[in-house]
Specification:
By secondary structure, the protein is α/β, with parallel strands linked by helices. It has 16 helices and eight strands. It has a domain of 162 residues: Rossmann fold (3-Layer(aba) Sandwich), CATH 3.40.50. The strands form two sheets. Strands 2-1-3-4 form a four-stranded parallel sheet, with helices on both faces. A four-stranded parallel sheet has the order 6-5-7-8, sandwiched between helices. The longest helix is centred in the last third of the chain and has 26 residues.
Length: 406
């Protein structure tokens, strides 16, 4: 296929957290607000006067100093973020909006927070005098009490803090403006991603992952023109005459902001057609619907709890719903199998990965490749062997089914 016009530019944006568009946003006088989890509504961090940056630690391979503070049994993702912070990679941040969700990233964000204690000297990791950290509690259930609690948390620990520190307008009008911008990003990302549903897709999983990550890590108003142009470009993009893949797969699991991991999978013959993982578009690019007369903040609180497929929701109906959702995604994207990847020492996704491996095969007949990996893929040779074996097993399954049909 012909190369996408802006792909190299998108790839360059992902080489560091303080990328070209982030720097432009700061030059415009906007406040950069960091976050790590889907449960922190990015739309509230994109209010007029500020912009959201979902933190990544690209190219971090040896978080040795961070391990001193977080221990070797904390996931590589949290340690990599800590390492990059200690290196000064996040000094552009004006605030970090944290959620009480993943224990490992909570530990990382606690280290960023200034304690102001007489007995302990602050580390002052982020070299920005305006920087602060605010923690928000996130419910474990979807109930009316949960929605009310979450809405109050967002008001007290996000909106009120942004107003107090930076004078950000958090009125309903400002929130509605941010939602409108957010929904346009969602529309464009979904339009781009829908080409993966074609029999011979006109966009690869790697290309889509790069574009989706840019939408999470750059000021929305600055990345939107590139998204619009890319969506228009894909309308006339022609696929290769011969399919460059042997099967299609849905990729799900924990934090994955490394497009090269998807490139590795696709180099083994499995085209990644859907991204049901942290940083993926399945959850984060669902448009926010606000009903007539509904409080915008209430709608946002409900949206982020209802659309999440995070394994921290542990009721049986939620767990079964997540398996059903994966089966539906495999059908919607015409996938031949499922790859479940969890980061080493990730408590939530380690359990979820094991359950997915059993249930998706047993109850839905979907081939599963189960992977435990580090945040950065140093053991690419071992992973390549696993993915090649998975592709071959999918092909053998298809051959057997064809013989039965005959």
């Amino acid at each position: 296929m012909k190369d996408l016009k802006h792909l190299i530019f998108f790839e360059d944006l992902l080489q560091e957290a303080n990328n070209e568009l982030v720097r432009k946003g700061k030059e415009e006088g906007l406040r950069a607000i960091g976050y790590t989890c889907y449960f922190m509504p990015e739309v509230l961090l994109d209010l007029p006067g500020c912009f959201s940056v979902r933190l990544r630690a690209p190219r971090c391979t040896s978080p040795d100093i961070a391990t001193y503070y977080l221990s070797s049994r904390v996931c590589h993702y949290a340690r990599s973020l800590m390492e990059r912070a200690l290196e000064g990679g996040y000094n552009f941040l004006d605030a970090q909006m944290a959620t009480e969700t993943c224990t490992a990233t909570c530990r990382f964000q606690e280290h960023l927070q200034q304690k102001h204690l007489d007995t302990v000297q602050d580390m002052q990791i982020i070299q920005n005098p305006d920087f602060f950290v605010s923690f928000c509690d996130v419910p474990f259930k979807n109930t009316e009490i949960s929605y009310e609690h979450f809405r109050k948390q967002l008001r007290a620990h996000v909106l009120d803090e942004l107003t107090a520190h930076f004078g950000i307008d958090t009125s309903d009008e400002a929130i509605l403006k941010a939602v409108e911008q957010h929904n346009e990003v969602c529309r464009l990302i979904n339009e781009i991603g829908d080409y993966r549903k074609l029999d011979n897709p006109t966009i690869t999983g790697y290309e889509f992952a790069v574009i989706q990550l840019c939408s999470l890590t750059c000021p929305k108003h600055l990345i939107l023109p590139y998204l619009r142009e890319t969506a228009e470009e894909l309308k006339t993009r022609e696929p290769d005459d011969k399919k460059q893949f042997r099967c299609k797969a849905v990729l799900c699991g924990s934090e994955n902001d490394d497009p090269d991991f998807i490139k590795l999978i696709e180099s083994c013959g499995a085209l990644v057609v859907c991204d049901r993982y942290c940083y993926g578009a399945v959850e984060s690019r669902v448009p926010i619907e606000i009903k007539e007369g509904q409080d915008p903040l209430d709608a946002i609180a409900r949206h982020y709890l209802l659309t999440s497929n995070c394994p921290r929701f542990m009721p049986q109906d939620e767990m079964r719903g997540r398996k059903k959702r994966l089966a539906e995604l495999c059908k919607e994207y015409h996938a031949d199998g499922l790859i479940v990847a969890s980061n080493k020492f990730c408590e939530y996704w380690s359990y979820e990965r094991v359950i997915d491996t059993v249930v998706m095969r047993r109850d839905y007949g979907i081939p599963v490749c189960s992977i435990e990996k580090e945040y950065i893929n140093a053991a690419s040779g071992q992973l390549r062997t696993r993915f090649q074996a998975f592709v071959e097993s999918v092909e053998l399954k298809q051959i057997k089914e064809d013989k039965v049909d005959v």
